[in-house]
Amino acid sequence: MVYFEDTGTIIDAPVGFVWDYLESEHHGPAHSKSARNFQVKETVGSTALVSAERYLNGKWSTFVSKSSDFAPFCVCNEEVEGDFAGTKFVLLYRPKGLQTRVDVYGDVQSTVFDPDEAKKIFLKLLENAYLDDVAVISELRRKQSR
Fold first, then answer.
1. pTM of this structure
2. 71: three-class secondary structure by DSSP
3. E-assigned strands of the chain?
């Protein structure tokens, strides 16, 4: 087990706005620099099986992720295929007035990378996803305030 946590991240938007974004058509394209070819393979209730490719170490690699969304509280993810198969993590969303606190807890697994490298790479993937999301959320908030 390669446990990780990243707590106290703040998004400058209310939790309802964040969830509206996560469930919108803007969310997937926000990650186009680092991920492509998203396909929802199956959806059962709040859980979706999603395949895609992510840009990793200079090449595109396929992965499949099982994601369960429990708005507005958390997203639970499990990588079921790819370089990080077996990785599980949860993102918790907590309202902080006009902001949202995001805490992430998880366990990184990989048959491709050694444990320390896997953790470092996976945390960087999560950081990049956060930065992509924040950029789009900020833009959407600016448009809303006009």
1. 0.91
2. coil
3. 2-11, 35-44, 47-56, 59-70, 74-81, 88-96, 99-108
Structural domains of the chain in order of their starting residue, each with its CATH number: 2-145 (3.30.530.20)
Which residues does 69 contact at the CB level (< 8 Å), separation at least 6?
A: 22, 23, 46, 48, 75
- Determine which of 32-46, 50-64, 75-89, 91-105 has the lowest per-residue pLDDT on average: 32-46
Taking alpha carbons only, the member of 20, 66, 26 closest to residue 43 is: 66
8 Å CB contact between 42 and 134: no
Instruction: Indicate whether 63 pLDDT > 90.
Output: yes
Q: pLDDT at residue 113 above 90?
A: yes
Contacts with 56 (C-beta within 8 Å, 6 or more apart), sequence order: 83, 121, 125
In the DSSP assignment, the letter for residue 120 is H
